[in-house]
Amino acid sequence: MAGIDTVSPSSSPAQKLSVIEIEGKGRSIVASAPLRAGEIVLRDSPLLLYSAFPFFPASGPHHRSNNIYCSNCFRSIASLPLPPSCPACSAAFCSSGCQSVAGSSSHSPWICQSLRRLRDCSSSPLVAQSHERQVLSRYLLAAYNLAAISPSDFRILLSLQGNPSSISADDARFLHSLMSSLCPSPAPEFGFSMELTATLLAIDGINGFGLMEPFHPEKDRSVRAYGIYPRASFFNHNCLPNACRFDYIDADLNSRTNTDFIVRALHDITEGREVCLSYFPVNLKYSERQRRLKEDYGFVCNCDRCNVEANWDDDDDEGEEAEAEKMSGNGSGMSEDGEEAMEEEGMEGEVVGDFPHAFFFVRFMCSRDNCGGTLAPLPPSHASPSTLMECNVCGNVSTEES
């Protein structure tokens, strides 16, 4: 059993998580000490970040869409009257300080030169017609740049598991050819081969996390950027997670940690138990969850919730709604016997007779329209657990009773 800090010692959290091998799951994160409800169990900084926007020519009608976020930290800069920008490639930044930091990291001279060349070839039909290829080309630029500026971090990136089926062979060949046409590889130490490009694409396929736009009640959330995080990548999925992710991408300009991946426990987690996230909103139906997990991550989920819902008609929500309504009208949300069973399991709200997730929906699902977020207690203060619940999507803070 390895402490999770061994993945990236420079930003390790408290010694409360470990990485172990679990049969059928591979590397997994477990609690190596009891975790309290609301506790921040992991704060992780990205190995690399890249834009979720296609690359349009500088003179094109959509060029402005590439310059409403800082090219380094991806804060919104749409309200800034005249944000500093790169004179060579027009990349914009939230501040001169962020631009200076980017000059030796995310916006190195090699990246700047490559972005200019990518812009010039983005009118090619094979590039322009594929949003996915344009975004993946940004990822590959960021990955090869990482190899040049931080070989040790690049080795960590290569150590992450990948899913070869997440990218087509045609896309891999095309993207490798595109990368080779931009400019020479910035890191001769690692070479520049089709095999390495395919490996990097496979890693991105199952390790990339989206940095999302703020919640809007009348719009679907979109992704403004993607990041790969060295330790967060070890979290496995569960359709009834016991932890969830928070990010604060538009945080104060003075903060250099706005892209950190912050994980908080939903409830008390006992030592030795696996800590899991949901890779998407927990209110998705069974068929949609299974489809996305198979297509994007290459596995079939057999969690308690999925084993129950596999026998449901996917268009029939009556069982779910009736059970959730019964739970919400039961004061504490469950019987005394049920509460005792939860406490013994150390996984409050995960097992309720034949319906393992009714209590979860009542306690941890945000009720705000069009949100679909997960509620986690605010971090506990000293010995007292917080009674305030924060939504990881809309940011709404409420009491447990409301």
UniProtKB/TrEMBL annotation:
Residue ranges annotated as compositionally biased, kind Acidic residues, are 312-323
Outline the segment boundaries, as ranges, of region: Disordered: 312-340
Classification via Pfam families:
SET (PF00856)
* Ranges where the SET domain occurs: 15-280
Q: CDD domains given for it?
A: SET_SMYD
Give the protein name, as stated in the record: SET domain-containing protein
